[in-house]
Design brief:
This protein has eight helices and twelve strands. The chain is an alpha+beta fold. It has a single domain, classed as Phosphatase 2c, domain 1 (4-Layer Sandwich).
C-alpha cells in the first residue's frame, strides 16, 4: 500500500518579526483510512501587507484539514481539494466581516496535495508551490498566479525581466478578497522514491531548482531534510517567512479498474 513519511519546518526569516505561514496535514491512522481517504498536506502563506495574514493562513489550513478528515470515503481528490479550498476562501471572506475585522484586508495563498494509491492531486491558489523531486531533479508542478506570469504568457516580458521585475510578487489570485476563487489542479503519478515539496515563496525565492533537489534527495531523516531546506533558504535570503513540507513516497499501491471498481495490482 501507499507508504509515506513527511517532515516540515518553518522560520520567520531575518527581517519579519512574525510568521504568517501555516501548514497542516491529514495523516491516516489505519490501512483502511489510507485507502478510503489517503493523505493530505497543505501550506498557506498569509499575504504580507495585510493586517491578518497569519489569521487567514491558519484558517485556510484548519478548514482544509478538518474538511478532508470529514470527507466521504473514497471521495475523488480531483473535486475534493478544489471544494475544500473554496470552503477555506469563504471562511476567510466571512472572517473579514466579523466585528473588529471590518474594513481590514485578509488574504493568503495555499498549496495542497492529496495522495492515495499511486497518484497525487495538487491544488493551489497564489504563488506557494509544489515540487516533485525524482532521480535527483526537481520539477515545479504548480504555476504561480502572479502578474509577471500573466505578462510572460502574453509575451509582454522575457523570463529574465520576470525574475527581476518589481511586480514578481504581485498576486493575481488569493484566498479571501473575493467570495469565489479559481483553483488550479493537476494530477501526477507517483513512484517509490519520489519526494513532494510544498513551500512558500520565502523558501524557493532564494534557491535554484538544483538546491531543492540536492537537499531533498539526501539520505537523512525527513524532518532534518525539511529543516535544512528552510535553514538554507533563510541563510541565502531570509527576507520572508520560509516554510517547507517534504513528503517521501516510500512505496505505492498500483490500482486497476474493472467494471467500475478499483482493484490493487498484484505485487504492488
Amino acid at each position: 500500500m501507499l507508504d509515506v513519511v513527511f517532515g516540515q519546518a518553518s522560520d520567520p526569516g531575518k527581517i519579519r518579526g512574525n510568521n504568517e505561514d501555516s501548514m497542516g496535514a491529514f495523516v491516516p491512522r489505519s490501512r483502511q483510512k489510507a485507502r478510503s481517504h489517503g493523505w493530505m498536506f497543505v501550506v498557506a502563506d498569509g499575504v504580507g501587507g495585510t493586517e491578518f495574514g497569519e489569521v487567514a493562513s491558519a484558517l485556510a489550513v484548519k478548514v482544509m484539514t478538518e474538511g478532508f478528515a470529514q470527507a466521504q470515503e473514497r471521495a475523488a481528490h480531483a473535486s475534493l481539494l478544489p471544494r475544500l479550498i473554496q470552503h477555506a476562501n469563504a471562511a476567510i471572506h466571512d472572517e473579514r466581516l466579523q466585528p473588529g475585522r471590518r474594513g481590514r484586508r485578509m488574504a493568503t495563498t495555499v498549496v495542497s496535495c492529496a495522495l492515495r494509491y499511486d497518484e497525487a492531486w495538487i491544488a493551489h491558489v497564489g504563488d506557494s508551490r509544489c515540487y516533485q523531486v525524482r532521480d535527483g531533479r526537481a520539477t515545479a508542478l504548480t504555476q504561480d498566479h502572479t502578474l509577471v506570469v500573466e505578462q510572460r504568457k502574453l509575451g509582454l516580458i522575457s523570463a529574465a525581466d520576470a525574475e527581476q521585475s518589481e511586480n514578481r510578487h504581485v498576486l493575481t489570485r488569493s484566498l479571501g478578497p473575493e467570495l469565489f476563487v479559481t483553483v488550479e489542479t493537476r494530477k501526477v503519478s507517483l513512484q517509490a522514491g519520489d519526494y513532494l515539496v510544498l513551500c512558500t515563496d520565502g523558501l524557493y525565492g532564494g534557491l535554484y531548482h538544483e538546491d531543492i533537489a540536492r537537499i531533498t534527495s539526501q539520505k537523512k531523516d525527513i524532518e532534518a531534510v525539511a529543516q535544512e531546506l528552510v535553514n538554507y533558504a533563510v541563510e541565502v535570503d531570509g527576507s520572508d517567512n520560509a516554510t517547507a513540507q517534504v513528503i517521501n513516497i516510500r512505496s505505492i499501491e498500483q490500482m486497476a479498474m474493472y467494471r467500475g471498481r478499483l482493484y490493487p495490482l498484484h505485487g504492488s
